[in-house]
Amino acid sequence: MYLTCTFIQYIRRHRRKSSKTGPCASQVLQLLLVCTTTAEVTLGDRLFEGALKYANQSLHGRFISQMVDGSLPQAAFDYYLKQDNLYLSKYARAFGVLGAKAAGTKELAWLLNQSVGFLHEHGKKANSELQESTFEKEASATTIAYTSFILESVWGDDMIMGYASVLPCQRLYDWLFATLNRTRHIAEDNPYKKFIEQYAAPINHAITLKMESFLEQYAAHGLSDEWLARAQFHYDTAMKYESQFFDQAIKHCEENGCEPATPIRALAEVPVSIQQAAENSRWSAVGLLPVGNRGASVMALHGSDRHGAWFLDELGAFMLATDMVLYAMRETLHDAEGFETHVGPVPTTTDHPTAWLHG
């Protein structure tokens, strides 16, 4: 928000008449101060505002409400983590595709770094042994539909639509958990307190701003009303899926039976601790880089031009980091034959209309 103050002076030219008591009213220069507030709204802000009603569905939904008061059943949270892990395996691929289409090497390096971070969101082993057959067998209808939509957008459309499809996930978690942490009292014995706090951390907001800055560069020359409407459609669709993603955990719990959460059980029985899941999160994969390069990668993440430029100019270090990223991606994203399922023949299943792209 920028404040622009424009001073408009209207001077009445009079013969100055002095007075012992001071100038009379007719001799006073009349100054009119007009302050106009100009809001520089980014495309990311505009898209989020357009989808705010869907974001509020997540905020006020049963899953988040029960997480805040600590009553969310352990089985519901476990199911959420399981589906989120499957989702992130595809979300990581989406960032890999965006990286391949990136306008510059700085954007490429950042997207690849984030891609590996998503694979380790719930622990380094969470996705390192995930096979495509596991996704096909365990992913829910909502998870398949959501990831299919994202992959279709990044593969088949331009970068604006691609970013508009992947941004809602990041922006929602940033906004949602920061809002909860700021406006709601989270009891100390709430089993999900650390999970909420980790996603409410400032570094998560830094990730959002970085993604939105990349989106902004592709819209620098403006968007037609038609193109803006298309971007809003992609953003809205992803935000609707986010709400459905939370809801499915509650429905699964109701259909299969579950017990209320307790602080001890919730922290002890989650496959990877809630805190570790957040710390390993979608925020970075700095741990993959050599020790000497970690500082550079962190500064690049936070947008320092000086350190970011140094990081990119150090060609040897950059190549080493890239090799490590690609090695990690090869281990987790399967071999070439597995990756070709993205563009392979359309499956005959009719369970999910968009399932043809979920490979």
TrEMBL record:
CC annotations in GO: cytosol
Chain spans, region Disordered: 340-359
Domain Thiaminase-2/PQQC: 56-249
InterPro entries: Haem_Oase-like_multi-hlx, Thiaminase-2/PQQC, Thiamine_Salvage_TenA
GO biological process entries: thiamine metabolic process
CDD domains: TenA_C_AtTH2-like (cd19368)
Domain of life: Eukaryota
A Pfam family assignment: TENA_THI-4
Designated name of the protein: TheD protein
Organism: Symbiodinium necroappetens
Lineage start: Eukaryota, Sar, Alveolata, Dinophyceae, Suessiales
